[in-house]
Amino acid sequence: PIRACLFDLDGVLVDTAKYHYLAWKRLAEELGFDFTEQDNERLKGVSRMASLDILLGIGGLNLDEETKLALAEKKNAWYVDYISRMDESEILPGALAFLQELKAEGIRIALGSASKNAMTILNNTHMVPYFDAIIDGTKTVSAKPDPEVFLLGAQELKVDPAECVVFEDAEAGVEAAIRAGMRSIGVGSKATLGRADDVVSSLQEMSASRLMELFPAR
Ligand code: B16
Ligand code: MG
User: Fold this and answer.
1) N or C of the chain: less Cβ packing under 10 Å?
2) The pTM is what?
3) ipTM of the complex
4) What is the distance in A from the centroid of ligand 1 to the CA of 1?
5) Are the C-beta atoms of 163 and 180 separated by less than 8 Å?
6) Is residue 188 lining ligand 1, measured as CB closer than 6 Å?
7) Residue/partner pairs of 59-62 with CB below 8 Å, 24 or more apart
């Protein structure tokens, strides 16, 4: 039976991708090149430093480690400023209702995010009380598609990975779930998330009953 649900943050529970985009775009412009919304798709679910490497690749820049750390810090300061103004209105449709339903059904809930800023976002949107475990970029060593973030979540919940379902909007996140030995539901398009057990376009399509139908207890 399914005993726990693990949620990615950015792109599943909140749309912070737009703030990441604004901050990366501002950095690219300062460095003298353009960064499009389509370019930004490549950064979803990817860690901060790996995102910077992709961005610099687009600009054709090759910089030393020290300069890169300073640029990543600069981008993050802008991003932190944007998310400091977030509130509950930025929780994605269907997310709260689904979390509430899971809680009522006694299903354990964890966060599994790559972001080092996850706590700020959860605090500002008042979502902290829904989580039995919170694993974010401050607690992990390896980035998705490494399964670490989800395995730590299952461990903290004391639930077997086979009894966990991961909700993810990024291909690397679905891959991480598979490597963790967990079931997964993609939130987004079938084209990129086809490896998940099922794909929904938003959590509005999810319910505890759909979860039980998808993964019936044997
Ligand atoms: P930060 P998720 C990820 O969050 C974002 O999708 C990705 O775009 C971002 O670069 C990464 O977090 C690191 O975020 O710079 O705040 O530490 O989708 O895993 O919740
Ligand atoms: Mg995501």
Assistant:
1) C
2) 0.94
3) 0.92
4) 30
5) no
6) no
7) 59/28, 59/31, 59/32, 59/33, 59/35, 60/33, 61/31
